[in-house]
Amino acid sequence: MIKLTRIDDRLVHGQVAFTWTPSLGIDCLLVANDKVAKDEFQKMTLNLGKPSGTKLLIKSVADAATFLNDERSKSFKVLVLVNNVKDAANLTELVPEITSINLGGLRTKDGSKLISKAFAVNEEDIAIIRELLEKGIELEVRQVPTDTKQLVKELI
Amino acid sequence: MEDNVNTRKFLIATHGTLASGVKSSLDIITGANDNLFLIQAYLEENKSLEEEILSILEKVDDNEELIVFSDLLGGSVTNQILQYGLRPNVHIVSGFNLALVIEILLADTKIDIEQVIKESIENAKEQMVYVNKLLTTQHNDND
Question: Which one of A138, A146, B40, B105 is least enclosed by Cβ atoms within 10 Å?
Answer without folding.
Answer: A146
